[in-house]
Write a structure and sequence with these properties.
By secondary structure, the chain is of the alpha/beta class. The chain is built from 14 helices and 15 strands. It is about 35% helix and about 20% strand. Strands 9-8-10-11-7-12-13-14-15 form a nine-stranded mixed β-sheet, with helices on both faces. Belongs to the GSP E family.
């Protein structure tokens, strides 16, 4: 009897298994159960995030204890943070949105998330459980904006409250699951000094561009997506004299002008019934009735380009815009095409004359294979030659100096 009693006293406890924490179904069940238990305690949602995290960590531990599963402490903490982000944030995107080194977040289906850091794309460990998880988080983002996302409206382009831009495409248009692109809003805008230190521009070139803004030159900035067009436009716009009235027009407000007399206008897409759209062209036309000294169009991409050129030609000197193009010369071709899209029926020569008399400088920027952004050329618009817009190069990145060390200000005055 004593031997039996001894065996009973020393009976080993059942061994605890280690769950597969990469299993999407396990995580989904964990999130669902913990969130349901949290919802029973509504007062918890008014607590500080740190208090919520402690409570969630306790619930996660209970979840695995009930199943006799052993989870390392660091994994418990990570799972608790995941659930907190689900409850009070944007799920797996929350740490990425809070990382100031990340400029873009790209979601290509639930298991494939990439970010851009310092101009280079890289994969991250964060991922979603499934397509439904992506949609749940994205709809939470869009809910305060009143935007609809479903099979009847499978594409959305919107601006988040912090200024970040989000574009979403879902099945059936996106074949491999929901695709989300987020361009994060920089809390602290880059400065001219930062561009110089990053060798995006030379000090001499930056001084020339800044002086061109002060002297009310009409400037077009061209480049590919993500090349830094808006960043450069933002920096140059801060040199507009304080007393001037500036009207900005953007699809998603990004410009951070330091000028105190700025009127910011933003386009509006149509609603779910296809009504209520306010286009960039409408806003440009309306801006001219608002007594602006300058008009800044965030991007010329359609028929609004004609109205912008007309504004530059009718006394609104010092206006600026950007355009997608592969070179300064290609930027002018793009403008010609957009003028035609606006229904302009004049000859090609007249279109070129409108462009030649409207613009003073075309600044082309690019991003190299290492992710570094540069101003690669600055072309002065000198008028027409045989019906073609004549350009004179003032700067080339390969030389990293103003061509022939010209007195650029006199050079422009002579051409005017």
């Amino acid at each position: 009897m004593g031997a039996w009693s001894s065996l009973t006293r020393h009976k080993p406890t059942p061994s605890r298994s280690a769950p597969d924490l990469t299993d999407g179904a396990l995580k989904a069940a964990l999130h669902r159960e913990v969130i349901e238990r949290l919802e029973d305690d509504e007062a918890l949602f008014s607590d500080e995030p740190s208090a919520m995290l402690v409570r969630i960590e306790s619930l996660v531990r209970d979840y695995f204890d009930q199943r006799a599963e052993q989870v390392p402490v660091e994994s418990l903490e990570a799972l608790a943070r995941e659930v907190l982000n689900e409850v009070a944030g944007f799920g797996p995107l929350q740490p990425l949105l809070g990382d100031d080194d990340i400029s873009d977040i790209l979601i290509n289906g639930p298991r494939n998330i990439l970010v851009e850091r310092q101009g280079r794309l890289e994969s991250v460990e964060e991922c979603f459980i499934n397509d439904a998880h992506v949609l749940r988080v994205v709809r939470r983002m869009l809910a305060p904006l009143g935007r609809r996302l479903d099979e009847s409206s499978p594409m959305v382009d919107a601006r988040l409250p912090d200024g970040s831009r989000v574009n979403v495409v879902i099945p059936p248009l996106a074949l491999d699951g929901p695709c989300v692109s987020i361009r994060k809003f920089r809390r602290e805008a880059l400065t001219a000094e930062a561009l110089i230190q990053g060798r995006a521009v030379t000090p001499e070139l930056m001084a020339m561009l800044q002086e061109s803004v002060v002297q009310r030159r009409n400037i077009l900035i061209s480049g590919a997506t993500g090349s830094g067009k808006t960043t450069l436009l933002n920096i140059l716009s801060r040199d507009i004299p304080e007393h001037e009235r500036v009207v900005t027009i953007e699809d998603a407000a990004e410009l951070q002008l330091g000028n105190s007399h700025v009127v910011r206008l933003e386009t509006r897409p149509p609603n779910s019934e296809g009504e209520g759209e306010v286009s960039a062209r409408q806003l440009v036309r309306n801006a001219l009735r608002m007594r602006p000294d300058r008009v800044i169009l965030g991007e010329s991409r359609g028929d609004e380009a004609l109205d912008m050129l007309q504004a530059m030609n009718t006394g609104h000197l010092g206006s600026m815009s950007t355009v997608h193009a592969n070179s300064a010369r290609d930027a002018l071709v793009r403008l010609q095409m957009m003028v035609r899209l606006a229904g302009f029926e004049g000859s090609d020569g007249l279109v070129n004359q409108i462009i030649a008399t409207a613009l003073d400088l075309v600044v082309h920027v690019t991003r190299d294979g290492e992710g570094h952004r540069h101003v690669v050329e600055v072309q002065q618009v000198r008028g027409l030659s045989d019906g073609r817009v004549e350009l004179a190069r003032l700067y080339r990145h390969e030389d990293r100096r103003l061509i022939d060390a010209v007195d650029w200000h006199k050079h422009i005055e002579d051409a005017a």
